[in-house]
Amino acid sequence: MLYVSAVTVVEGGTASFDVAVYGYPLSGDPDAPIPVTVARTDGDGDLTVREGASLTFEAATRHIPQQVVLAAAKDADNEDGTATFTVSAPGLEPVTLVVTEADQDPLAPVFTTVPVTRTVTYFPYLLGVHARGRPAPTYALRTAPSGMGLDALGNLTWIPTETGEVDVVVVASNGLQPDAELSFRLVVGEDQPPVARIIAPLQDERLSGPLADFSCECVDDVGCARVDFRVDWLLLETREGPGPTYSVGGAPGRWDISGLEPGPHFLDVVVTDSLGREAMGETVTVCIACPEPDAGTAVDAGSVSFGDEGDDIIDPWSCDCAATGVAPAAWVGLGLLGLRARRRRN
């Protein structure tokens, strides 16, 4: 129904978008005209529909776009406003549109950047700084370590060579006071090796079928860059990218195990970080096409013939059990013990 999902209207001005009807209402006469309404359903009241709040589409021309004009009234603040407009028609799914009012009042710079405050030696430190303001602000370094640079677009770059802490101050100005200041302390440490862990399959897991999951995760202080998957200490596949998770085949469950011999196999991974440091994860042992563990087989107790109990059967009627306080209920237990003894003899 809509050709766009977002529109920007300059404060005090107008902007337009097109609407057309595709499909038929779920009920009613499919050849009847379709009424369409456009209305603000949430957000800034300064944004309104100037033209096209009610549209009618004939059956033969419903696919031909009609124009809707939005307006943004001037206001006293210097902030941008947003509103949601809904385009709806009976029997059709409504569609929403996000509209932004672009304020034109002068605005002193305000930083929106949250700086990254930790890095490591010999790894490029990159930070894009940004400040809102009208007119657009320019940037300058007020305090910085040796070798740090800042271009006109706000890209802060540096390659530290020593550990320690340095102070950084970036200033944004556009002729309106006050200037904006972004101040932070950057901590530089030694690069640490990455840490790798196989997350699938699990240790001693039994695998079957043509496909299985072989995945790992990588954690590093500057970022992971590559992982080598190995089976029985031979390279299976290399995956590149920032991670932190990697999988054989590019996604979980895509490891083809159909060509592996049945039996135990050893899986490991070697991860590499952005500075080229490597680390190997703990090896995981799996078994492919292996039967489940044997739960055990019941031992045949043998056959028992009546009248062949042997002398090791206790006769509760011939013993002096009553005199010794053994209840008749216990005689059954004694009889079972005698039966077991007889079976062992067989």
From TrEMBL:
GO terms for MF: calcium ion binding
Recorded superkingdom: Bacteria
Any single Gene Ontology cellular-component annotation: membrane
InterPro entries in UniProt: Cadherin-like_sf (IPR015919), Ig-like_fold (IPR013783), MYXO-CTERM (IPR024038)
Protein's UniProt name: Uncharacterized protein
